[in-house]
Input
Amino acid sequence: MPQFGLAPYQQGISHMTYEYQREFPDIKTTDYLQCFLLQHKLDKCGAREALYHSTGQVSECTHCTVLAVKVGKVITPAKGILFRVPVNWS
Output
């Protein structure tokens, strides 16, 4: 796994948005082709990640989980994502 240092965590990373929904979002390992196909576009625009969205809903990134903080609570998208252990940071 690459080591990025503290900068991405303190300053964030650049991203691009991309309209896409995995056919089987609950089985992420079956659909990494889109990630590879997007790499050229990411490099061209200087982005590290693509933020997937479809029908007005953000679902995930190419390599990362989408998290947001709303009124002091960490939240994730409700559907169309890989099933995982719920995020619970107190």
Remarks:
- The longest helix spans residues 33-45.
- The two ends are 27 Å apart (CA to CA).
- Helices lie at 7-11, 33-45.
